[in-house]
Structures are given as structure tokens and as C-alpha cells.
């Protein structure tokens, strides 16, 4: 109302001053002219102002009620803080059945955070919260209300509550042919579907991460293939028989009832369950191109570079695409069920978690310890003694040896190690086949679950597990202090990278040709790139390959082989590009690591040095790891028992420190040992300072001079030392510091 009065009064005054603006624009003249004409003001204007102010005075004002549909009033906290609170609550009570997930589904902060994530994937740039427009927030609120009111439909093609910032399509002006193509052909997942999937993932992931088994490593934050290899090196050292199972058929799809029943084991929220059930049951529109509709591609001699749009993200670089091609068989398949999208891997882990729990029960059932064993002779079998990479000197299995099994799962692939006779492995395989048939209705046979001995080599994640027999010299002190040296027999579990699999992956990427004697092939995709850019791309590829084979025993050998293939491929490329005929000539001009410019055909000429120093040419980095001595050593860092990812460690440490019992236990421990905490020590110092300072202020008017102040400080220090028995041995430096403080 005040704004209305102000605007109307301003418009009235403005209309009155238009007359004066024609004669003179000076403000003093305008004011004097207004005062002269004040008496002859029109009666209509006075009536207008009187009525206006009478109406404003008679109006009653009340406090503005916040609009429940205003996005700014609904966003009370940060989305990251809400997610952190969810992780803490679920890790504090991991076995509690969750029933109130709809409350988190109402939180607009989570929807804004999901919008930021999906926009980052869509546009390739992170959108801060302050950059989100008002219209986008209103559309997000409309999408949230549609989900809560059961008005949201998965896989919508033309009706959207919110659209991508990149989507500039005017759907109202589309022709019937384009609309028919949108409705009947395969289309990417809608933008609003990905937002809902992201919100469901943020809500469900904390619930199940605290419940999942520690023997599952795929599709989980903080766990990867390197974690599996380190666990194998630590825990699978003493096993002789292995069962390698491929259950990846379950990742292609499961019955909706089985997924929902596994989900309802821990979550009893009807809104979330119905939303996921609708995502699984809604049909996905897919279409195949007919043979008659296929257009023959014309070979072009030269291919123009495609110019990206302003809002189009850059594609993955060549080195990253090449590394993705090296994904092992166990990590290639990513589940995608219905319209669940990024939620599918979590649902797959939820379904397979029952298999993990069943195997953990079998581990306890099969465990039979032996007192004569070097390790694994504790009551639970988890306590390790000695070096786990050297479990036994005599690794034979007999009635006097410990019988034990271990298990890990990476996605749909399982690896089971058995220490004992082969009959134990056959019994376990039979029980596993029956469990998968009853629980998942998955038909397995002995061929899909083969039993292999460690001497044949077990392939897992493109690494071979094998056994090496060593004969070390054992020295020990006998009775009488005599040192005895004896030859012993020991075994080591070797985790080596498979050279055969490496060649297979290079052949798949068209880097080599042949199996026994692989011949490098030129990578013509980098034909139009400069030498500096090509070398830089291949160096990045070699860097990630060095990291991938970090825990392989033959890391130096396998990385040096990769460097040889890349270097030979680039040499053939440069020979074809600069017409040098052979790799030998390329190495002669460009050196072993191809760091010299090949375009000049003069090697490292003075002109190139001068141009490089002036910054007129691009510096060329040579290829890395051209010699085996340049490859780093294998990482043999011990893997701790009960390992947890960093984010789970932080959560558990926060919960431990936030618990009041922890503080009381620490204080009681300090009191029992006669120690004092730093907080108590600081508070004692502050209290003594306050007492001494007050006393100095009272006597400073009576006692004058520096000597009197010093004696007074020493007296008060002595009284404080008498009252505090724990400060009797205080040094003279602390006394002098106290005196200086008292003087100040």
C-alpha cells in the first residue's frame, strides 16, 4: 500500500512540474514557482490528495504471511548439510527400518542440489546456487509437487515440468512428423527424469551404504578395482582352490517383484517404493533402424572439424576414450533397469546384498581352525598373525590344517577362495547353485562356476593370481644363544597383470595387430593434431596406465610394454604424416622419446631453440616410460584389516566424538592417570591470572615502585602454588612471566 501511495503521489507531482520544465530547469526556480502557484492549486488536485491519504490512513496493515509455494521460503538449509545429516543418521542406526523418506523427498534443497549435478553433466560446467534463475526454481518446485502428488510420469516426451538449459526446442511449433519421431524412436533420458533419479539416489544411498557388506566393492563410493586387488593380496594368500562365478546375467534385468521385495526389506516408505516401481514397470521406447532406412556412408577424403556450440560440452579426449577401452570384463557391464538410470547400480547391489550375507554365514560355517597353523587359529578366524602375504611355510591342505573360505564380489562377478580339500569347494558350489536358483531364479551349472587350482592361475580384473614357491634362509636363536640357519620353504601370492589381456585390449582399440608378435599400428585419429598435442595425449594415457597397474607384481614390465606399443604407433603415424618412410628414420630425427620436432627434419636445430625461447613454437614433451628403469616400483603398502573408505572413516570418527560417552571416558582416563587436559590447564591459567590481576589492582595504589610489584607478584604466585597442588614444580620462567603480566 505504501508503494502505491508513493507512486501515485510521485506521478501527481511529476504532472504538476511538467509546466515549469518548459521555461527554466533550475531547481531554485522550480521551487519558487511551485510556492507561488501553491495558493492557486486546482481544487480537483486537493480533493485527489485528500481522498488518497484518507484511504491510506483507514487501511489496516498486517504481517505478510510467507507463501508456501515460494522457493526462497522453502530453502532453509544447504543441500549438502541435509545430505550429511542423512548419512550420519543412517550410520548411527544401520539396522533400523526406514519409514520417513517422504520428509526428505519434500526438501527443496535436495532438488536444487540434484539440479546442479544434472546441469553439470548436461552442460559440462558447474552451476552455483546463486546462478539458478527464479523460473528454474519455480519449475523445480512444480516437479517436486508433481512427484509428491503422483502426477509425475516417467519417460515423458512432450510434457515437461522442467527442461534442460540447453533445450531450446519449441515443442508447440513442431510438425507431426517430428512429434511422431520423438514419440516412437529411442531418445535420451529426459532432463526431469534424471533430476528425480538423482534425488532418489541421494536419499537411498545413505540408507544402504551403512547396511552393505564389506565384501562388496562395485558401484559403491570409495571402492574400486584397486581395492579388490589389495584385498586379494592380503586375504587370499593361503587359499588353494578358487571358484570364479559370473552372475552378470542378473545385471541385465530382474523381475520387478524381486527388486521391490529386496528394497522393502529395509525401506517401508510407500511414496518412494511406488516411485521406483513405476520407474521399473514403465516401458522404455526403443526402436531399431531398418535395413532399408540405412544410409550408405560416403567416404570423404578430408574430414572437417566439427565446431561445438556455445553450450555444448567438450567430448572426452582421445586418451580418456582409450583408457575406457581398457576396462576389464568384470567392470564393463553397467546395469540399466527401466527408467531408473543412475539408480540401477544401487538397486543391483541391494538385490545382490542377500548373496553377500549368505556367503558371510557360509564363511563362519566352513571355518575349522587348527592349533598347528601359523595363522587363522583364532576363534573368529579374522585375526591375522605374521605376514599375510606369507601365510604358511608348508601350504598343503590336510586334516591338521585350518579350513577356511573367503569371498569378494565385484558387480556380477564373485571370487571365492577355499583352503581345504576340493570336496569343500564342490559342496559350496552345489549350495551356491541352489541358493541362486531359489532366490534369484538364476539357473547356474558347474561350467559357470568352475573350480580351479591356484597353480593354473586365476584371472580376475585382468590380473592373474598365482603361487610362487620360495626357499628363504631362516635364522633363529636356539637354547644357549646359538644362532641356527636353516633353509625353509614358503609360498607367496603373486598378483600379476595379464600380458595376454593387455594385447587383447590394444587390439580392440586398433593399436596392435597380431597375437604372438604384436605389431603396433598407427593411430590415425591423431593425424591432424600437432606433434606436441599428440605426445601430450599419449603421455596422459600412459600415466593412467601406470596407475591402473599400480599393484601388479610385473608393473615395470607391463608398463614398458604399453610404452613400446604407444611409441611404435606414434612413430608409424609420424612416418606417414611427414613422409619419413620408416620408424627408424622417425627415431633418428625425433630421438627415442619423440621429443624433437619432426616437421623441420633437422632435429634439434638452433632455430627451434630460439623460437621456443621466444614462445613462438609449442614445446614438445617426450613420451614417458621409454625405459624400464623410469617405471615406478610396485606399491606393496600393507592393506589394513577392517579397511574403510575415507568418507566412512570421517563419519565414524564424527559420531564417536559427538557421543557424550566418549568425552566422559577420556576425562576419566585422564583422572586415573593423574593427567590434566589442555582445556583444564588453560582454564586454570586464566583463573589464576584473573585472581592475581584483581589483587594487583587493589594494592597498586598503596604499593608503588617496581620492587613492590615484583614482591607482590611473587606473593600471589606463592599463594596460587599453595592452593594448586598440581603446580608446585613450576619453573622460574613461568614465575617471571606471571610477574610481567601482573605489571601490565
From TrEMBL:
UniProt-annotated stretches for the region Disordered: 714-744
Protein name as annotated: Intron maturase
Domain Domain X stretches: 495-596
Positions with biased composition (Polar residues): 714-728
Source organism (scientific name): Abeliophyllum distichum
GO cellular component, as recorded: mitochondrion
Composition bias, Basic and acidic residues: 729-744
Cross-referenced SUPFAM superfamilies: DNA/RNA polymerases
Source lineage: Eukaryota, Viridiplantae, Streptophyta, Embryophyta, Tracheophyta
PANTHER family xref list: NUCLEAR INTRON MATURASE 1, MITOCHONDRIAL-RELATED, NUCLEAR INTRON MATURASE 2, MITOCHONDRIAL
